[in-house]
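Why do we bother with holo predictions? Because pocket geometry can differ from the apo form. Keep that in mind while you read this record for uracil.
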Amino acid sequence: MNIVDIIRKKRNGMVLQEEEINYIINEYIQNNIADYQMSSLMMAIYFKGMNDNEIVSLTNAMIESGEVIDLQNIQGFKIDKHSTGGVGDKISIPLAPLVASTGIAVPMISGRSLGHTGGTLDKLESIPGFNTSLTTDEFKYQISQIGVAIMGQTEVMTPADKKMYALRDVTATVESIPLITASIMCKKIAEGIDGLVLDVKYGNGAFMKTIGDARALANKMVKLGNLMNKKTTAFITNMNQPIGEKIGNTLEIEESIDILKGKGPEDTKNLILQLGAEMLVLGRITSTTDEAIRILKEKIKNGDALNKFRQMIEAQGGNSKVINNYSIMPHAQYIVQVAAEKEGYVKGIDAFGIGNMIANIGGGRIKITDRIDHSIGIELFKKIGNKVESGDLIANLHIRNIEDGSEIRELFGSFFEISETPVNQSPLIEEIIR
Ligand code: URA
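The structure, written out:
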């Protein structure tokens, strides 16, 4: 087999065979295929696409390029949730212990913040002592003991994806549905799950800007998951404004704990309940969404969900006093208030702008090697559709350097669009693809 022939075949729009795809991935991770050849092949895939069989073969080859976590000795259904990334997206943090408190195992492998999007691991690390770098054995042990663990990808999982993703990032080949599908699904399937609920976001703060693109990606991932015997559902959700009222690492842990205490913003709570209910239905805890929601609400009300979060924090070395004392997490020295300059209705909030602003002032990463200041963030007091009077407080900006305060306030103000006429809120959940 020859890589040049394979590139030419895909360039001419032909279908690659399983053996060819296995050959490419094996040779690439052994450095026998050069980055320039892989880039060229991925650009050909970008333009010519892949059929379902090719995507299954690519995903399998990427899974087999590294370690697969074997959770078969752990009783019961194992399910994860994955979001394609957004601004203020803390959903996994309350969702994982909430679902685990019903008896389903939730092995969750999450990512770090990059660019405008936040990362679950960075958020959890706002909790003093919380360790997100578990070994595979520690991860498995924790799942067997308390039914939930959240960690980062180990060094030995899906190395082909790591290498290909880094290359896609610098060769304009990220936005390819077959490549994104294989990249996300190989990492999820390598966790040893039986089921997966995907939150595919669209809008100004998402990776997919239009609902059409999000739908196409969601359909592919659901089809692939089910072809690979993983019960998979995708939600398509709106990311045209940040999720919830707190954005930034420490602040998002505060909001997550509030939710587990039965408080917190309604839209965020509702998304958690809907995603969680789907996880319960796929895991056959119950057969209807309504009953699943009732169970989840009861787990919040009786404290089981919060208790599961406490167990997870302690199992991962964190200080669980955080549950009743948010001040043990890093908090910013300065809070700059932002007031509305005119009356009207909030029409738009540029989530992409806000996410980038937080990253630029130290609360996220521009480069993967950047250090994060967990204390940086924003509390949003007004969301799309809300009425504002001139002078109303719309946000608190948690910042590091007070000298930059006016500039940051001005920039933040430019992310808010106020209309004179009432504005309807779009639903947070647009579609569910099963
Ligand atoms: N996230 C991933 O893990 N892979 C992609 O290709 C895109 C987003």
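The CA atoms of residues 281 and 287 lie 5 Å apart.
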